[in-house]
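Question:
When you can, review this sequence-structure pair and walk me through the tokens.
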Amino acid sequence: MNNKALYIGLAFSVMIAGYSYIDAKKYSAAKNTEIFMVQKEEGKNIENKPKEQQKEEPTIEVSNLFVEKLIQKEETKDNQQKEEEMQVETKKIPVKIEFPNKKIIAPIKPVGLTENGDMDAIDDAKTIGWYENGPSPNMNGNTLLNGHRDWKGTLGTLWKLETYQIGELMTIYYEDGSSDLFALDTLEVYPKDFVPDHYMELGGENRVTVITCAGQFKNGGYQDRVIAIFKKI
């Protein structure tokens, strides 16, 4: 009786062990499947990882080459921009002015300041003065030009400037043979003693300020000033 119970107990233990082994195999297979799915989801394969790393190295080299080319391109662009800025800031000497729609052409000569600190003017009805201590029309800043409405009985180049319409064209020719085209942007008339100071400031954006006389002639001179601002087109 004792031997029979021993055999039954041993068989039961073997059966339990068998189930445990099967469950363990199922768990192991499920776990392996889970690990594989996680690795697949993350795009990683442990066995092939070294090969993947070897494949990534050429990609890194190509990326570095792309960055180097991009840097070279930006440096070339910066150098070109600097060259263009240098060319723009090269001071050209204006020698002639033209208002093509008015069929007016006149020479330009440099002037400085009078003893009173005002911009000087040429003693000639047809010649335009350029303040040479300021910018040239090809440069950034405010180029100052002036001329007479009339002078000693002769009508000046800037006669009737106050009647010019916005958009009126003006060409400036330089000593080197080049030229720039401008269009009238704003035009104002002020009493001669009340012209705002900012019109005579030399800095700021590229523009050409043309000044002449207008209004009533009294006490040896005209009482108004015409301020015409031309911008490059």
